[in-house]
Amino acid sequence: MDRRGFLSFVAAGWLVHTAAPARPPLDGRIVGAAHGAGHLLRGGAPEGVARGPAERADVVIVGGGVSGLSAAWRLAGAGLDLRVLELEPRPGGTSAWGDDGVVPYPWGAHYLAAPNVEARATLRLLEQMGVVTGWDAAGRPTFDPRRLCHAPGERLFYRGAWHSGLAPVDALSPEEQGELDRFHALEAELTELTGNDGRAAFQIPLDRSSRDPALLELDRMSMAAWLDREGYHTPFLRWYVRYAMLDDFGGAPEEISAWAGLHYFAGRKARAPALAGSHYLVWPEGNGRLVRELIERAAPRVSLGALATSVRPLPGGRVEVGYLDVARGEARRVEARAAILAAPAFVVRRLFAGGASRALPERVASAWLVANLHVERPVDPDHAWDSVLYEAEGLGYVDARHQLTDLAAGTAQRSSLSTPMQRTVLTYYRAFGGPDVAAARAALLGAPWEALADGVLRDLAPAHPHLRDDVARMDVMVWGHAMPRPRPGFLGPRPFEPRCSLDERVAWAHVDQPGMALFEEAQACGVRAAEAIAGAVGIAIGESWL
Questions:
Q1: Maximum Cα–Cα distance for the chain, whole Å?
Q2: Residues 464, 389 contacting (CB under 8 angstroms)
Q3: In angstroms, rounded to a whole number, what is the distance separating the alpha carbons of residues 46 and 310?
Q4: pLDDT reported for residue 83
Q5: C-alpha torsion sign, points 74, 75, 78, 83
Q6: Can you give the C-alpha Rg of the chain in angstroms?
């Protein structure tokens, strides 16, 4: 953590207890995640012997995030008893959501960029949801316009004023604008670039990307080193790239592979005319809407507050998964025909002692803070979806009320739309992208709510000096291991060959495989694992969904 970041956490919390004379002190709490329970695995499986007969299931899925739920979704319809063990008090992982406000709101990922045609599993889900409404003559999906982000979308607070979009073109110097134009031209060129094998240089899913050695060489340097090499030096361009790296990867450019950094700008290929106004699919609860759809369509038995402690094959072609019921402190076990471990690599190595787990990639996980501010009225009349502050510590905030067209599905209460105060929830994000992730994680986990809330208010104060007077409650989520950070070398010696099968009846599904925490990647990992164990549970799945 840098000095400014450290100071924000040792603040006395003065702001959270200060408001207009007629207003009460700010309410709020730290709501998760379940770090204390998860850290029980540090010294090996917690002690305790499961009493009584083992529970039964056809497939046990450890982890109720996007990968685990996508695995259940892939196996749905086969008549299997699917059991999901999730440590947190809510499903979804970093795509979780809350609904205790006037409108649902995200606790993590808050949008899905329009997927490439190669992201077959994601497009299948969106088609089932009615978000994909058809296909044009070029074979590209068409989207329900109500799900595309409405205007105004993004805005930037730059040198004392708000500007539309993330580039204040009317406020940049000629040198800054020229460098930004040069970068955008390169971005367009890289988006269309193919390698010597005929594949797109950068693609989603990642395993569809080119194996051209000249392109893979980019993974040997950092994004910051690449910017230096290419002559990008103006402060705004460097900030712009830094914001992008923190936003998608939770790391500063010095910490991110240049291949991964350029993939951020060139990996998305959706360019249909209907997307001219927006490339983002958004809901008030963010990607929590996608999680809800996966749960409803897969209908697994989900056990929350369940800490998986061990996974081992049994004689006779079965698998035993031990877990701890955290609330009751009871050790339990489930016997199944197969298991899918939808957990980070470092967790899987502790759960499954097989030799295959030792070959899983080593990943560094970025720490994040997410705060939800329940405000009594809009903070300003522009009502943009995503608001970013130039050179702030955090990545800005999104407004849950911005996307309120899906009333029939219940994402917003009709009665709340007519309230004169127009209450809403603002979701603030901050990634801790420095090299010492352990120190950042420790500072976050050790900080009291007052210090965390105070840091959020101070970070937003340049644009909203009176925000404290409009906030009724601020809850904070600390994600100690939010996402894998694609550092230089993350592609490994055999790029784009994800390891999935750990045993005939045990498969791994997590974004640690590709090394990027994109929704399409998480879903592909889950689908791939489900298809890998299908034979072990005796079902025919037909054509792959990938």
A1: 74
A2: no
A3: 10
A4: 98
A5: negative
A6: 23
Instruction: Answer yes or no: are the C-beta atoms of 356 and 507 closer than 8 Å.
Output: no
Q: In this predicted model, what pLDDT tens digit does every residue of 395-416 receive, in sequence order?
A: 999 999 888 744 333 333 333 3
Question: What counts of helices (H) and strands (E) characterise the chain?
Answer: 15, 24
DSSP 8-class letter at 183 = H
Q: Measure the CA–CA gap between 187 and 228, rounded to whole angstroms.
A: 17
CA 202/CA 194 separation, integer angstroms = 8
Q: In a 3-state reduction of DSSP, which class is residue 406?
A: coil
Taking the C-alpha atoms of residue 518 and residue 529, their distance in angstroms, rounded to an integer, is: 17
User: Per the structure block, which two tokens stand in for 317?
Assistant: 């072609």
Which amino acid, one-letter code, is at 518? L
Q: How far apart are CA 494 and CA 507, in angstroms?
A: 19
Two tokens at 375? 């405000």
Rounded to whole angstroms, the Cα distance separating 31 from 371 reads: 10
Q: Which CATH architecture has domain 35-96+285-363+489-537?
A: 3-Layer(bba) Sandwich (3.50)
Beta bridge partners of 87: none
Residue pair 334/83 in contact (Cβ under 8 Å)? The answer is yes
Which segments of the chain have a pLDDT < 50? Answer: 1, 3, 6-7, 9-10, 405-421
Q: φ, ψ for residue 222 (rounded to 5)?
A: -85, 165
From residue 546, how far is each of 123, 207, 208, 373, 500 by CA, in Å?
A: 10, 11, 11, 38, 14
> Residue 314 is inside which H or E element, if any?
strand 306-314
**Spatial CB neighbours of 486, under 8 Å, sequence gap ≥ 6:** 249, 251, 256, 257, 259, 260, 515, 516
CB 528 within 8 A of CB 361: no
The span from the CA of 489 to the CA of 257, in Å, is 7
Of 395, 488, 487, 473, nearest to 437 by C-alpha is 487
Dihedral sign computed on CA atoms, order 235, 237, 239, 245: negative
pLDDT in tens, 239-271: 999 999 999 999 999 999 999 999 999 999 877
SS3 490: coil
Tell me the C-alpha distance between 445 and 38, whole Å.
13
Do 39 and 309 meet the contact criterion of CB atoms below 8 Å apart?
Answer: no
The closest of 467, 384, 374, 469 to 422, measured between CA atoms, is 374
Q: What residues does each domain of the chain span?
A: 35-96+285-363+489-537
Contact 302, 497 (CB under 8 A): no
Residue 33: per-residue pLDDT: 58
Encode burial over 322-336: b for 16+ CB neighbours within 10 A, e otherwise. Answer: bbbebeeeebbbbbb
